[in-house]
Design brief:
mainly alpha; 13 helices; 0% strand
Length: 300
């Protein structure tokens, strides 16, 4: 509204003109205020997530430096680790030969094995979990066997795998597979058994065939449980590959730790442990993020 029109309105109706002027003044800066409040909200949430772990990390590093700086300390302090393993920290992808490579390349080799083993475990685990959850007889026959096999430690499977495959790479993949499959099977079976009876009744009314029931009813209903099993499985896969590579050799992150121990390079071992922890955290967040997107944030 122009100033002339506002002036004319003020002459005709002072109360209405005063109200209209107040509305204009009040509404004019609303958009910048909303943007500012939104930015402040994002900054606050980021600070809540980042600041507490950062403070705890700094405190732990300071305590570690204090305790391990003395002459009788058996572990290196953070300052010594930075000096001894500077190249591993700042250059994770250097390559000076077939065995002299950065930790980034070693992590990628291990992740390749994890991707194959965990992918096979996810597919087989979901299919077996659906069978066990949908069929009472399959549950009675297979569930006790699964409960027994899942308690076997991952490394106990390694000699069997080496004897069967005669090669370290497929043996490591098999150890990942056999470690990750059990939580996927169990959680998928629980999710299928917990499908509401109303959903099953609707499927019968609509006369869905087994394939349509699997795709439209079973998978969406059991998805939160399935992704819970996948999160547990991917964490166990990463644990298993590091342990298996210590025994099978190669260029993975697990073998690097074992080789560094034989060479008394404690600083390199600690740096590798940090790499392992960060990668494991990223894998867990990745699967959790995919699960939240697929299930629209629904919790199991």
């Amino acid at each position: 509204m122009s100033l002339t029109a506002l002036k004319n309105e003020a002459i005709a109706s002072p109360v209405a003109a005063k109200t209209r002027s107040a509305e204009i003044v009040r509404l004019a800066p609303a958009r910048p205020a909303v943007r500012s409040n939104r930015f402040a909200g994002y900054a606050h949430r980021a600070a809540v997530v980042v600041v507490p772990p950062f403070i705890v990390l700094v405190a732990l590093l300071g305590l570690w430096e204090l305790l391990c700086s003395g002459p009788g300390a058996t572990l290196p302090p953070p300052s010594t680790i930075w000096q001894d393993s500077y190249d591993l920290i700042v250059s994770p992808f250097f390559e000076n030969g077939s065995q002299d490579i950065g930790l980034g390349w070693r992590v990628l080799v291990s992740l390749q094995r994890v991707a194959i083993g965990f992918g096979l475990a996810a597919v087989a685990g979901i299919l077996l979990g659906v069978i066990v959850g949908q069929s009472v007889w399959a549950m009675r026959g297979l569930d006790p066997i699964f409960q027994v096999l899942r308690t076997v430690p991952p490394l106990a499977w390694l000699p069997i795998a080496l004897a069967a495959f005669r090669d370290s790479n497929p043996s490591a993949i098999f150890v990942i597979f056999i470690t990750a499959i059990w939580p996927v099977i169990i959680n998928t079976a629980v999710g299928v058994r917990n499908i509401p009876q109303d959903y099953r009744n609707v499927a019968q009314v609509l006369r869905l065939n087994p394939l349509e029931f699997f795709a439209k009813i079973m998978l969406p209903s059991a998805a939160p449980y399935i992704f819970t099993g996948l999160r547990i499985g991917v964490g166990l896969s990463w644990l298993a590959i590091v342990a298996a590579e210590m025994l099978t050799g190669g260029v993975g992150i697990g073998f690097f730790i074992w080789d560094a121990w034989n060479s008394s390079r404690l600083s390199d071992i600690i740096v590798a442990l940090v790499y392992i922890g960060v990668v494991g955290f990223v894998l867990d967040r990745l699967v959790a993020g995919i699960g939240a997107f697929v299930t629209r944030g629904t919790a199991a």
